[in-house]
């Protein structure tokens, strides 16, 4: 069994009202009552959704019409066909909730298993389900600390745990984050489509979503926390390096785009092109440059230059 390595979007839409629609996935499993801590619950999910994975979470029951606001990040599972997920949808899913976690004592308040869509379907609440759990009486709880708060930006643009920021394939992206408590922070990219080297994020695809997790270690007065910031990936923009035309000369134009695609040229007016060489005369020169696209990475190049050559 692969131990979960990611806690995705735990607070991403925590206070969004649950939609009044029947959940599609069916939950079967147990035991659910008079549990030891930690418990070991075997779960089978039926009618698994086809457009995204599910998170299996332990949470305190939310107020009527709202998602739970207090959950046990340490035991969360990701069920998906993604090879990095905790379990596949068809597996015997072993979930291990605890009677206490930061801010909650499940022997005193109503806790349960909360099912919801994962980060690939961030705004769809139709899979939300709450299955109640009960635990045996536990030892007295220790006073808990308030959670730290994390703010983050990419290239100076503020990140939100609820609304994904857009990032193009291979576009420069620099992450910055701060802890309200001044605690030490650590960083992780939780999706293979984004690489994180130091504070530099590189989108390796032009479609899909990524999740950047920023974790605060906390301090003597503040509890540690992990915040998740979703990123929506978009197709990269192809470009070519700039060039200058000089009358009565042959100018060599860029052979490839910034993504290495071969460029074709068509010159009209006072210039003619042979492959990537343009012959220039005085007058108005029009050059059309084109290059093919790459599926899920970048769009085609289609540029038109109108240059007056003296």
CATH homologous superfamily descriptor of the largest domain: Neocarzinostatin-like
Which strands sit side by side, in order, in the main sheet?
4-3-8-9
Distance from N terminus to C terminus (CA atoms, Å) equals 71 Å
CATH class of the largest domain: Mainly Beta
Return the structural class: mainly beta
What is the C-alpha radius of gyration, as a whole number of Å? 26 Å
CATH architecture of the largest domain: Sandwich
Q: What's the number of domains? A: 3
| Number of H/I helices | 0
Largest sheet, in brief, is: 4 strands, antiparallel
| Helix share bin | under 10%
DSSP E strands, number:
22
What fraction strand?
35-45%
Characterize the structure shown:
- The chain has 310 residues and is an all-beta fold.
- The protein has no helices and 22 strands.
- It has a four-stranded antiparallel beta sheet, with no helix packed on it.
- A hairpin with an 8-residue loop joins strand 17 and strand 18.
């Amino acid at each position: 069994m692969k131990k979960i390595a990611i806690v995705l979007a735990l607070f991403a839409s925590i206070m969004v009202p649950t939609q009044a629609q029947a959940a599609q996935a069916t939950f079967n499993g147990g035991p659910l009552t008079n549990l030891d801590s930690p418990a070991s619950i075997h779960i089978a999910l039926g009618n698994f959704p086809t457009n995204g994975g599910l998170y299996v979470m332990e949470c305190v029951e939310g107020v009527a019409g709202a998602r739970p606001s207090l959950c046990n990040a340490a035991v969360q599972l990701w069920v998906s066909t993604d090879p990095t997920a905790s379990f596949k949808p068809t597996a015997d899913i072993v979930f291990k909730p605890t009677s206490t976690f930061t801010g909650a004592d499940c022997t005193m308040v109503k806790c349960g298993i909360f099912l919801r869509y994962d980060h690939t379907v961030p705004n769809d609440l139709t899979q939300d389900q709450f299955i109640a759990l009960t635990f045996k009486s536990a030892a007295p709880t220790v006073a808990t600390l308030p959670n730290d708060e994390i703010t983050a930006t990419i290239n100076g643009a503020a990140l939100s745990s609820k609304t994904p920021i857009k990032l193009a394939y291979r576009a420069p992206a620099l992450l910055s984050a701060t802890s309200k408590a001044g605690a030490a922070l650590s960083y992780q990219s939780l999706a293979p489509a984004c690489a994180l080297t130091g504070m530099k994020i590189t989108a390796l695809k032009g479609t899909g979503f990524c999740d950047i997790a920023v974790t605060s270690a906390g301090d003597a007065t503040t509890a540690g926390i992990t915040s998740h910031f979703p990123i929506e990936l978009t197709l990269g923009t192809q470009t070519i390096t700039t060039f200058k035309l000089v009358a009565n000369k042959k100018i060599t134009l860029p052979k490839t785009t910034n993504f290495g695609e071969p460029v074709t040229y068509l010159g009209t007016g006072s210039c003619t092109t042979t492959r990537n060489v343009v012959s220039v005369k005085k007058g108005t020169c029009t050059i059309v440059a084109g290059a093919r696209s790459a599926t899920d990475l970048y769009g085609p190049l289609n540029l038109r230059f109108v240059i007056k050559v003296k």
